[in-house]
Fold this protein.
Amino acid sequence: MAGMREDYIERMIERLVAALAAILKAGKAQKTEEALDLVHQTSLTLFGMEYRMLITIDAGSVAGLLEHPEKLKALAKLVSAEAELLQQRGDTEAVAHRLGHALALLQEAQRRRKNPDPETEELLRDVRDRQSRLDAS
């Protein structure tokens, strides 16, 4: 059973990587609306839930829904990618909200692990740095 769950998580991560690449490509091509649509589609595909719901409820509640730390980390990556797109639009209020939510999701993911995850730690530093830069501007 544990092997099946690990296989599922690995496939989810592969799909996330592909989706993030497509989102990044659309964002770099200044196709912000297309990239934002991809964020919402990816949420439905990976988590089976509407993105809007996952970003409006608190991280602890999201963690209860998604259950696995890797899913929380995947959602945090998606939220962080959306923050970059919103930054292109100049929507600093939405960027601040998304970065705060990504940070809370990553912290929740770390709390739910038996051992610290180096990738999650790196993502935490990155999101905090981005928040600091946003606050300074």
Summary: The radius of gyration is 14 Å. The helical segments are 2-28, 32-47, 51-56, 59-66, 69-89, 92-111, 118-136.
